[in-house]
Amino acid sequence: MFVDKETYERAGLVGKPYGAKGGRGSKPRWMVTYNLRDPSMLRGRKGYDRLIYACKSVFTQPMTWLFCNSTTQIPNPDPLQKFSPTACTSTSSISQDIAVLQPSLDVDPEILSENDRESLEYFATEVYEWFSLIRLGSSRVEPRDSIDPYLSRYSVPGDDPKESKVCKLSWEGFMSAQWLRGLLMDVLVACPSRTWFSLSATSFSKSVSGNSDDLTILRPPSATGRYLMWETKSSD
């Protein structure tokens, strides 16, 4: 929870300051985080009682909460039904035959044999940027992109990128790690061994600036049993 100073002091909960210090024109905020599965959250414990008191006496206005059912079975009776929940099901968005200029997605064997970490990081950065532009639907990766170089100096990496077509499947919603792992297993089974694929997952943003954590996995086309993984962490 992100609360202002007055609410934070009235609630009596344990938190920490949030945001840049000394920012002009911005009111200080505090961030309060609770793990409801922690032993201190059992009924009768001080942490639990303090949170219940704050909810009854300070946080009195109705709020909308987002819950994720990480299992395939719904308990009976469903404890959420008495709150009249709105069920939301995430459906896939499919974009087929996207024309792109594709760089080489295979790591140069010489880089691996010589353990050249600097070259590997350079290759990985360029490929990750290319994937990010595809996810954004950017025109910079299109074969006949004619952007003014004054506006963008990006070019697809590599000496001889090839024209190719890719398919993009996207889901947006509250997914569990178990669901994502199952999706990865399905892709591994469905795609032939010499076919490359990339899987990315991005967390909800926790800040006004929109920064979020991201995990991307690539199986190169000519590297059986080898994968590249990028993990980016928000600075917030």
TrEMBL record:
Identify one Gene Ontology CC term for this UniProt entry: multimeric ribonuclease P complex
Q: Which domain of life is it from?
A: Eukaryota
Check the record and name the InterPro entries matching this protein.
RNase_P_Rpp40
Q: Which GO terms describe its molecular function?
A: ribonuclease MRP activity; ribonuclease P activity
**GO terms (BP aspect):** endonucleolytic cleavage in ITS1 to separate SSU-rRNA from 5.8S rRNA and LSU-rRNA from tricistronic rRNA transcript (SSU-rRNA, 5.8S rRNA, LSU-rRNA); tRNA 5'-leader removal
Instruction: Tell me any Pfam family this protein matches.
Output: Ribonuc_P_40
What PANTHER family does UniProt report for this protein, alphabetically? RIBONUCLEASE P PROTEIN SUBUNIT P40
Q: Report the protein name in the record.
A: Uncharacterized protein
UniProt organism field:
Gibberella nygamai
The record lists the lineage as: Eukaryota, Fungi, Dikarya, Ascomycota, Pezizomycotina
